[in-house]
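Q: Two folds, back to back.
A: First:
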Amino acid sequence: MSRKAGREFWCTAVSESVLIRLRRADGFDPHRGHVVQCNQSECQYVDKNEPPCPLNLGLFAEEMKAIAAARSWREEYENR
């Protein structure tokens, strides 16, 4: 799954189905990390991923592994 693609998720904070996706955190730091974003822009927990928001990076564990592998390969290639 692409980081841009969304997936459906039942959100207990808003008691409805939302679309979530993995995206880079805001800022210019190359090591700024990722957040899980939902399509509920009015939600008070949007982009925070802190309780009681049920969103967390574990929902995208496979994608995070792929990102880490690509980063590792890129760094190894650049250090040759």
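A: Second:
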Amino acid sequence: MRRKRPDIHKQLARMIKTPKEIALLKKSARITDSCIAVLKRELKKENVTERQVARAIDRNIRRQRAQLAFPTIVSCGKRAVLVHRKPSRRIVRGLGYADFGAKWKGYCTDITVPFVKGRIGAKERRILDAAVRAHAMLTKSVRIGMPCWKLQGKFTRFMRSRGYAVRHSLGHGIGLDIHEMPSITMPRRRRKKLSPARRKRSRERWGIVRRLRFEPGMVFTIEPGVYVEGVGGCRYENDFVLSRRGLGAITHAKPLAIA
């Protein structure tokens, strides 16, 4: 379902989080992190389906008096080539990912855990390896004052050097909305025809994105994804707070391997 995009100026006004907001986001992150153990437990079950795994994650979030930040995604095998796909009755096996998040007192967090259940082939191992290496490289690259789009550019070059295409933005701010500023993406021109009013809004938005720089108080995701038609895909995502001391993770997703 296509969501209505929040007003960009409202997002800019709340892009730098207060200490109280960061505390709420960290609480939300702890609830989200607690689902990693649930995911691991469910993946160990024989013949468990994507839908069953997603429902177990949802129950864990609600049990802690939190809400879902967005509908939970669990996808594996060739289905995982799509960036956002509803969980199915497919039995979980091979390479895949679970994308989920909690909302605590209005504040959203968002992680994606890549996983392997059973054996995978060389192509799948290359996909997972690229996502893991990109995540490590990019989290070490963030600097205060750096244009946000340059991080996306670094990711794009990394992917192309390995023969992969980029399917989505590298990251986004989190807060009262699951997608806020900063938008960690490359400014781009719309190729399709737009009405004059929409063209003006598009130019304004991408002009803002081009000027965004990393600042202390920003809370955002970094989520490199690799997707190959006919093979599958995975995404690896965590949430971070940027302070004058540097970049600090508030979620702790790591790849899971289930024999």
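Q: And?
A: The CA atoms of residues 46 and 91 lie 9 Å apart.
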